[in-house]
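Contributing new complexes? Match this layout with WQD.
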Amino acid sequence: MKILVTGGLGFIGSHTVVELLQQNFEVVIIDNCSNSSEDVLDGIKAITGKSPIFEKIDLREKEAVAEFFRKYNDIEGVIHFAASKAVGESVDKPLLYYENNLNTLIYLLQQLSSKESASFIFSSSCTVYGQADKMPITENAPVKQAESPYGNTKQIGEEIIGDTCKVNPQIKAISLRYFNPMGAHASTEIGELPIGVPQNLVPFITQTGIGLREELSVFGDDYSTPDGTCIRDYIHVVDLAKAHVVALERLLKNKNEENYEVFNVGTGKGNSVLEVIGSFERVSGKKLNYRIVGRRAGDVVVAYADTSKAETILGWKADSTLDEAMKSAWDWECKIRNEAQ
Ligand code: WQD
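Output block (do not edit by hand):
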């Protein structure tokens, strides 16, 4: 039995491949390396001693996807990470996002529809909630008008999966709605590799801490929160990776109650931007250079997960603290910058 991991050389994908290999799954990775590198395979091997099959394929090529499933006709499960994920870029390049995030999903589901049975895990996002009315956010919170084409592709993606499962009972699917992934594997063999200027908070903090960036801009401190900065649910990427393995096992063992389910994946705790900066300063022993600037368009004020559904139904719970996750992010930053010197 093989498990296909699309985007398996990416940040969350590579950490999930490590967890799958350590649970003795046979993994096949598809990645087009547009936002990752084949060198990540070395890190995966360094941690697990294993070399998963790697196929450099662009999932936008419909025939290439069909050829892949002809070649690997024993794929039992798919974890689908491959997608573009920069919120700001999606506003400038909507068609690139709709093509890359939706056509690829459709081609994968078309292949699974012709199999006798298939398990499918979709990389979704808390973005689908927009600014939720109540905290913590449950899976029943209304899906709101997306703030960006990126967020819209996650909403539409979930609808495509739901509609497909309705008429394909042999497909069992779970959407995992991530909150804010951060950190790196404790080995520092794999981690986040943002290309260019990081859009996300944590890599910008660690790059500022290591001296790659002059200073962090904090996007607004006049929000209706205790310290005025936005609140998010920051989850260690290894905890997030483990949630994928648990969700996949639920489907492979036919433990799912419906053939399409949705779970929030976060820590259940919210931290402000200033608290995340404080975490960096504690774990690194360094003072972070930052400046308060104007708000960033599209930011929601507060978002953190109600994780009780994943805890009770999946039996999964994040167990890393913010400082543990930040320490892993900082250790990774130090490792890759020292190697670069
Ligand atoms: C977090 C907080 C910023 C950078 C996005 C996507 C989500 C997922 C994760 C892909 C906010 C503040 C940030 C900076 C700052 N992406 N910030 N200075 O926007 O919550 O979520 O990334 O899966 O789908 O929506 O994450 O890390 O960009 O921002 O002050 O240089 O940090 O304003 O309050 P976000 P983020």
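Reviewers usually confirm one structural detail per submission. For this one: The radius of gyration is 19 Å.
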